[in-house]
Protein 1
Amino acid sequence: MNNDLRRWAARVPEIDRPTYHAIADAIAEDIQAGRLRGSEKLPPLRAVAEALGINFTTAARGYAEAAQRGLIRGQPGSGSFVRGEIPAEPIRRTSPIGTIDMSMNMPPEPTDPDLIERLRGGLASLAREDDLYGLLRYQEFGGARADREAGAQWLAHRLPDVDPANLLVCPGAHGALLGLFAALARPGDVIACEALGYPGIKGIAAHLGIRLAGLPADRDGLDPEAFAGLCAANLPKALYINPTLANPTTATLSMERRTAIAEIAQRYGVPIIEDDPYGCLPARRLPPLATLAPQLTFYVAGLAKVLGAGLRIGYLVLPNVRYTARLTTTLASLAVMANPAMIRLATRWIVDGTVRAATLAIREESRARQRLAARALAGIDYWAQPEGFHLWLPVPRPWTRVELGTRLRQYGVAAVESDTFAMRSPAPEAMRICLGGRSSRDECHRQLEIIHDAIEHLPAMAAGADL
């Protein structure tokens, strides 16, 4: 494997974007850092697909996205090459109404002046630290006692009575998941998950040589009978599950199913990796699996969906001291430590109430955007939750996900087809639509109306018609 592929295999799973966007991002980073130079030939697509553990189509889309940004060029019969002159700004085909990215599942960015001022104040406070250089030194992995206590305080509404000694502050939730997969399974082992889920675990599993067993799920979440059947036939090393406002389907695991899955896991001794990035958003919450099977559940939550992915702070609650010691060693070997300055900032924002204020603001804005979606997509079947900031759109016939996705991109709407999230084949005819990020309410509503109008046109008509 050449150096480019090694870098991309390590970097792409860390980027919280669809895989094909992440490939283009990795190429852009290498160009900006001088690791890729003008006219340099890129690795063949099949080599990229193999190195990243993805299919050929996704690798090809990654190169196509990089070409659309003006980063690379294809030469028939010869391959793909870095452009001789890299544009200062990405080159994109844009629609006459402008482009809004609805592919990134990020919370709506705050506009309230008071909240923004609180965020600014937190950042400014780092410069006033008595031991400023202490934020630049190596730290013990997992955070200081005060940082662990702050994490326990933030999680208390979902997960009461967390012992800070069994909580680790991690470099993002994705980093915690990487450590858990590495600690609980070996190459060739099976980890169970939903058939549609967070694409980051596909990259983690491929990197570690772990097989994923995608299980059926519906609007009430994972099917317990399917999980029990897998346990009886081929006992998995763990179950990975996103029980609340699941990415991408928005499904929330019902109380009945939570109880059933916890019982099955306990019966067979299967550890549960509970990934709960959106668990703070619903005002009325169902209890986490970690409260139903506490001796088997590894609970992961981060601040990416509350404050932003750039903070890169996640919290991992472990079942007992034995696992805490083991995971501390594993995670430290993978990531050394979380950024001390960002840990300090996260702790400050939790303790002074900024995180709570941001959560309430995101919850209310998400409710407003879901109301917009209900109006704009009237008559179209889709999955959503009142306090989530994404929705799941089954693509109605005669459209296919590829045709509709292509059509939407022509009109400035970037969404993500189901292939990105599929843990098994075939992927369903569906797309994820995100309502947050930098877009305003008006921009979000306009894009939703475009989606509605595109669906209403038959593919053959849409090919030659303007929306």
Protein 2
Amino acid sequence: MPTMSEKILAKASGKEKVEAGDIVIANIDVAMTHDLTGPLSVESFEKIGAENVWDASKIVIPFDHQVPADSIDSANNHIIMREFVKKYNIENFYDVNAGVCHQILPEKGHVVPGEVIVGADSHTCTHGALGAFSTGIGSTDMAMVFAEGNLWLKVPETNRFNITGDLKENVYAKDVILHIIGEMGADGSTYKACEFAGETISNMSISDRMVLCNMAIEMGGKTGLVEPDKKTIDYVEKHSNKPYEIFKTDLDSSSLNMIDIDVSNLEPQIACPHNVDNVKPISEVDQEIDQVFLGSCTNGRLSDLRDAAKILKGKKVAKDTRMLVIPASQEIYLKALDEGLLKIFVEAGALVSAPCCGPCLGGHTGIIGPDEVSLSTSNRNFRGRQGSPDGKVFLSSAAVAAASAIEGKIVSPE
């Protein structure tokens, strides 16, 4: 019997049934590119001589990586993309005031269950949290999608993580996924669909599920997925008017590998330099920090800001530590403003910036210098990821980031 991924890709390729290992030509429901990867897609699109895009209503272009433009090169990239949007009447264009692409797509109703979504960004797997098959592709592949509306894909096998147990206080979805990546290794799910299931996942919010699916790529996953339930349907019907179809995995599938994980005794987890799978429990980490970054497509959502503000309220960021807070979207920014969260951050001594990717890619606001240490709520800590190759990046949850900003070293919230 088929897995969730096999069912979605069978539908997208017009076949009754496909199996892991098959090569299919899948029709694409949503294609996303942004200001950093988009210009190469546009260049390739022009080189192949395409005269028009296949469907202007299915292309989504948010500006998020270098916004506002921080150099002449990034300003030129913005010009290239704005001209492409105008020339082909792209309906879903979000300029510099919208937010991070992987927050914008579900927030603006572009993601519903059962779709095939591709993005010229490796963390496009985020959207599997809503029951879609969503994956990152190269910029030149995106040019072909723009022109033809389809793409060849190999149907993946599935690693299904059955996660059980109640999370302790101050332990979050970020800790769960860091723990899984630490156990599996950076190549532990290479070209596999990573399904997250079990009672722990059922109890998680959509935002938390996005955290898990976002980081599936960090263990080599082709996509991350959570089977739709009532929470999914409630979210989708609030944000989108698109039709959708729900698919679930048959547990007797021959391409399914079940992995049981009990998180009852999990403590906060830290990914240490310079690999995401170099994960340690926080009790084993003793590290002073220069900078804290709260934000990104992984942990820049309203729930993250609330968790951090609860800890920072009435406190101050340590004297020799700087803290950057960057909400993942304008909508989140406004809600945080209404709730007084941003006031808490500013009064604590943090710098609150407009929605964007920030220092996550090492190309914009808040990069670190040689020998500096960043504690980040983002998804990657590779050497040079957030600035100098001689710096160090540690990854944590939003709550750990807030507590650590107060202490000037990595500490658990309690």
